[in-house]
Amino acid sequence: MSLSRKKNEGELTKLKSILVSKESLARCMYNIGFSKFLYLGKSDEKNEVYKSKSVNEDLFEAIIGAVAADCDWDYKNLEKVCRTMLDMETANGYLALLVKEKSKRLGFGEPCYHPRAWQTDNYEDWQSDNLFNAGIGFGGFGCTSKNPKTGKHEYGIQVGENKFTGTGNGIAQAKLDAEQKAYQFLIQEEIKRQFQNLDYTNPASTLYELFQKKVIMEVRYEFNEYHDENGNPIWNCKAILEGYGTFEADNASKKQVKQDASLKLLKFIAETKIEQTEKWEIPTFYSGMAKIWHDEGKI
Questions:
Q1: Looking at residue 132, what is its pLDDT?
Q2: What domains are there in the chain, each with its CATH number?
Q3: Tell me: the pLDDT tens digits for 263-295?
Q4: SS3 for 26-90, per residue?
């Protein structure tokens, strides 16, 4: 594939400045949480350079550049990466959809979204670059500020009377964390209603049955063979499920290693206690508009 251009570097830079906003790219990196992976010197860390718009804008462009070099400028791959980072709905919209569908099907009604906002003495926390509406998923992001006790963003989702709070370095991470908890709770509720007892003797088959009954998404398996210190072949298997993550096992038998990884995943799905929130502290947001409460209860 060959690329050609009709404009010089200065003209392209000017065009980019019109089409691309430094604030939007930096905000995107901040909310995805990629800024935490920056390697910085001690003085830069002390000066919190990772919060700089220019640094985060450069990080966004560096990721695109790395992908371009790796895929030999394949347009489809580049477009996919750009859309994923710019359109955060692709990052967590699938869970929002699943939570909404399962919540209504199980009789809990429409899930309610509660972005969390906190009283802050730092004016910069409330500037538009850190506080914004992205309109992502069902219910949107809303506006949040960090919990001063933890330094993390928080996001709440309510399913019926059940409340779930997600945390993260950015708004998107916090929303995704809350959706994962709500989704896992709904899966357990659905299993309780459809199954008297789960079959743990053949966990891979049981997971496939859950998929066929539309309780969970399809489990994806990845196998890798390696050798131990004695030269014996060992199989590694990863059982991957959207909304849960990756569960892996090692065994000399390829058939058994799939069952071992499946068992870890199945037990996590059915037996893990999902953390719920009894009540949310004020302040909070209502219908996307902020109501910031002071200690004495005044707005």
A1: 34
A2: 9-86 (1.10.1520.10), 94-299 (3.30.160.20)
A3: 999 999 998 888 888 877 654 443 333 333 333
A4: HHHHHHHCHHHHCCCCHHHHHCCHHHCHHHHHHHHHHHHHHHHHHCCCCHHHHHHHHHHHHCCHH
